[in-house]
Write a structure and sequence with these properties.
The chain is built from 11 helices and 15 strands. The mean pLDDT is 96. The longest helix has 22 residues. α3 packs parallel to α4, α4 crosses α11 and α7 runs antiparallel to α8. With 390 residues, the chain is of the alpha+beta class. It binds zinc ion. The site of zinc ion (ZN) has 4 residues, from loops.
Length: 390
C-alpha cells in the first residue's frame, strides 16, 4: 500500500474500487441518476450524514458537523454518464447499451463516498462539511440547477472544491491554476432556409447547402481576423446537415457550432461576430436564417486564495512533485464554473495516467477511470477537509 495515502482510505481501497466498478457497470445519463443518487444517499446516511435529496433533480447533499468550528466546506462530485457505447471489454463494462461512464464520474462519486466514510468515522476536523453530489455535468448544467434550487441558501459554504480526472497527465498528480482555468462553452444552432428545387435547374433555387458552406468558411475568419491573437478563442462547426439526393437542391441546412473562450469580452465578441456573419452571408444569397445562440457554461475561475490553499495542502502532503509542473489553462469546460461564481473555491485536475494505463481520452469508448488514483483522490478530500476545518 502506498505510504502517502490516508491510512483509513488505504485500508478500504479494494472496497472503493468495487464500488467504482458497480457504478461503472450501471451508468445513468444526466437527471436520470436515480440508482446512483439512491446509492449515494443510502451510503451517506449509513455513515451518519444528514441527507437532502432531490436538489437540481437527482442531486444529493450530505451534511456532517463536528466540533464547534465556524467554517463550512463544500466538496463536489458529479454522477452522470454519457450516451456512448462502451468498447473497453472490461468485466465491469457498462451493462446498459448506449450508456457509459466515459468521463470518470463513477470515479469521482466513489472517491467522495470513500472520503465521506473516513471523514465521518475517523477524521479530525471541527466545522461543517457539505458533500455535494451533482447530476448532469455533461452539458445539461446540473450544477446550475442545484444553485437555482437554493444549494448555498440551504447549505451555506465558505469555500467549495471539486476535482476531475485528466488522461494524458501523470497518474495521481494534481494540477490547478488561480484565475481562469477552463474555457466558456456555448452552442449555436443555425437553420438556413433557401428554396429547394431540381438539381438541373439551379437558377430557380436558393441552394441552402451552398449558403451553409459559405457561412462555414466565413466563420473561420473570426478567430483568425477578429480576435486579438494573444487571446484564446475557438469556433468549431461540428455538424452540418443538408440535402439527401444528388439531383435535389436542398431547401434547408442545419449547422451546429461550439464556441469557446477564456475572457468574457472575447466570448461576447464571438457572439456578436457569429450573428453578423451568419446573417450577412445568408442575405448575400437571398436565404433566411434562424440563429439559436445557447449560452452554456462560463469560463471556470478559481479563487486565488483557495487555489493557493489547495496547492499548499498538496505540497504539505506529497511535496512539490505532487503538483503538475507548468500547468496551463484547459480548453475544455465545466459547469462547476457556475458554482465558483456563487462561492470562492478551487477546481483541480488529477492525472489519470499516460499511455496504456489511463491515457485514453475521456468521452472515448475505450476510456476507463484509473483505479490506481481512486485512493489518492479520496485521500486528497480528507487532507483538504482536515486542513480547511482545522
Ligand atoms: Zn467529466
Amino acid at each position: 500500500m502506498e505510504s502517502f495515502l490516508v491510512p483509513g482510505i488505504a485500508r478500504n481501497t479494494q472496497e472503493i474500487i468495487a464500488l467504482r466498478h458497480d457504478l461503472h457497470a450501471n451508468p445513468e445519463l444526466g437527471y436520470e441518476e436515480f440508482r446512483t443518487s439512491e446509492l449515494v444517499a443510502k451510503q451517506l446516511r449509513d455513515y451518519g450524514y444528514d441527507v437532502h435529496g432531490g436538489l437540481g433533480g437527482t442531486g444529493v447533499v450530505g451534511t456532517l458537523r463536528k466540533g464547534a468550528g465556524p467554517l463550512r466546506l463544500g466538496l463536489r462530485a458529479d454522477m452522470d454518464a454519457l450516451p456512448l457505447q462502451e468498447r473497453t471489454g472490461l468485466d465491469y463494462a457498462s451493462r446498459v447499451p448506449g450508456k457509459m461512464h466515459a468521463c470518470g464520474h463513477d470515479g469521482h462519486t466513489a472517491a467522495l463516498l470513500a472520503a465521506a466514510r473516513h471523514l465521518a468515522a475517523e477524521a479530525d476536523f471541527s466545522g461543517t462539511l457539505h458533500l455535494i453530489f451533482q447530476p448532469a455535468e455533461e452539458g445539461a448544467g446540473g450544477g446550475r440547477r442545484m444553485l437555482e434550487d437554493g444549494l448555498f441558501e440551504l447549505f451555506p459554504c465558505d469555500a467549495v472544491f471539486a476535482f476531475h480526472n485528466m488522461p494524458g497527465f501523470p497518474a495521481g498528480k494534481f494540477g490547478t491554476l488561480p484565475g481562469t482555468f477552463m474555457a466558456s462553452s456555448d452552442t449555436v444552432v443555425v437553420k438556413v432556409t433557401g428554396r429547394g428545387g431540381h438539381g438541373s435547374m439551379p437558377h430557380l433555387t436558393v441552394d441552402a447547402t451552398l449558403v451553409a458552406a459559405h457561412i462555414t468558411v466565413a466563420l473561420q475568419t473570426i478567430v483568425s481576423r477578429n480576435v486579438d491573437p494573444r487571446q484564446m478563442a475557438v469556433v468549431t462547426v461540428g455538424a452540418l446537415h443538408a440535402g439527401s439526393a444528388p439531383n435535389v437542391i436542398a431547401e434547408t441546412a442545419e449547422m451546429r457550432l461550439s464556441v469557446r473562450a477564456y475572457a468574457p469580452e472575447v466570448r461576447e465578441a464571438l457572439h456578436r461576430r457569429i450573428v453578423e456573419l451568419v446573417r450577412t452571408q445568408a442575405a448575400v444569397f437571398g436565404a433566411q436564417v434562424e440563429i439559436d445562440y445557447q449560452w452554456r457554461y462560463p469560463a471556470l475561475r478559481n479563487s486565488p486564495e483557495m487555489t493557493a490553499f489547495a496547492q499548499q495542502v498538496i505540497r504539505d502532503w506529497l511535496g512539490e512533485e505532487g503538483l503538475i509542473a507548468g500547468m496551463e489553462p484547459l480548453t475544455g469546460s465545466e459547469d462547476f464554473s457556475f458554482t465558483l461564481e456563487a462561492c470562492p473555491g478551487c477546481y483541480v485536475i488529477i492525472g489519470n495516467g499516460e499511455g496504456e494505463r489511463g491515457g485514453c481520452s475521456v468521452h472515448n469508448p475505450g476510456y476507463d477511470f484509473n483505479d490506481d488514483i481512486l485512493a489518492v483522490a479520496a485521500s486528497y478530500w480528507v487532507k483538504l477537509a482536515e486542513a480547511y476545518l482545522r
